[in-house]
Each structure stands twice: as C-alpha cells, then as structure tokens.
C-alpha cells in the first residue's frame, strides 16, 4: 500500500521560510517523479515543483527561485524548501508521486501553509 505523508507546514510570517517533507512508503521511490502541488482557496491546484528520478527539476515560473525541491532516495523522502514566503503562497500543499507521466500517480493528504503577519 502506497503512502505519501507530508509534514512541515504551518503558520509563518511574510519573508519567512518553511521546509516541507514528504515521506513515501510502499513504492520504489527512486523510480518516481516526485512533485509538490498546491491548492489555494478558490483556485485550481497547480504544480509548484517536480523532480525526476534522474534529478531534473522543474518549477512554477512565478516562484522566481524562492523554492527548491530535492529528494533523498535513501530516505524515500522529497523536500520543498520555501524561502521569502509571501501571503499568496498560502495554500494546501500536496505531495505527488508519478510514474509514466500519469500512468501511476499517488497523492498525499496535504499540509497547510499559511503566510500571514
């Protein structure tokens, strides 16, 4: 049974940082493209960042270098380092594991990130 468990969300002031983690189990983690998505109230879910099994990364262009995705295959974990957070980054952040461009896809339950003073 595949499980993706996110952690690290919370309330942070504008300009602050958070590091999200997603621990995977029940799958061959190293074979999957891992991604972070977010869903803000009233908005569609969007891809924030992804990292392939080979380490190639892709980011939402509007982030302008504030976020960094990384993975540790030995720990079956993917991370999202978020710096210079803005109120518009407030959203529920989801971890996704994808194999074969959607042939097999798993989702975590989400972790809330709130950026507010």
The shape, in one word, is globular
Number of strands: 11
Helix count from the secondary structure assignment: 0
Element order, helices and strands? EEEEEEEEEEE
Oligomeric state of the chains present here: single chain
For the biggest sheet, the summary is: 7 strands, mixed
Using only C-alpha atoms, the radius of gyration works out to: 13 Å
Which residues form runs of ≥5 with pLDDT under 50? none
Mean pLDDT: 96
Give the end-to-end Cα distance, rounded to a whole number of Å. 40 Å
Structural class: mainly beta
Strand content: over 45%
**Helicity, in percent?**
under 10%
Overview of the structural elements:
This protein is mainly β. 0% of the residues lie in helices and 53% in strands. It has no helices and 11 strands. The radius of gyration is 13 Å and the shape is globular. The mean pLDDT is 96.
């Amino acid at each position: 049974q595949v499980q993706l468990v996110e952690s690290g969300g919370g309330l942070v002031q504008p300009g602050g940082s958070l590091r999200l983690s997603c621990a995977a189990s029940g799958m061959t983690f190293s074979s999957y493209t891992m991604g972070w998505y977010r869903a803000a109230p009233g908005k569609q879910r969007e891809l924030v960042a992804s990292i392939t099994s080979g380490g190639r990364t892709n980011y939402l262009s509007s982030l302008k270098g504030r976020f960094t995705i990384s993975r540790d295959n030995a720990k079956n974990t993917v991370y999202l380092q978020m710096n210079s957070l803005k109120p518009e980054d407030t959203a529920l952040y989801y971890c996704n594991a994808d194999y074969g461009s959607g042939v097999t896809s798993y989702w975590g339950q989400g972790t809330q990130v709130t950026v507010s003073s």
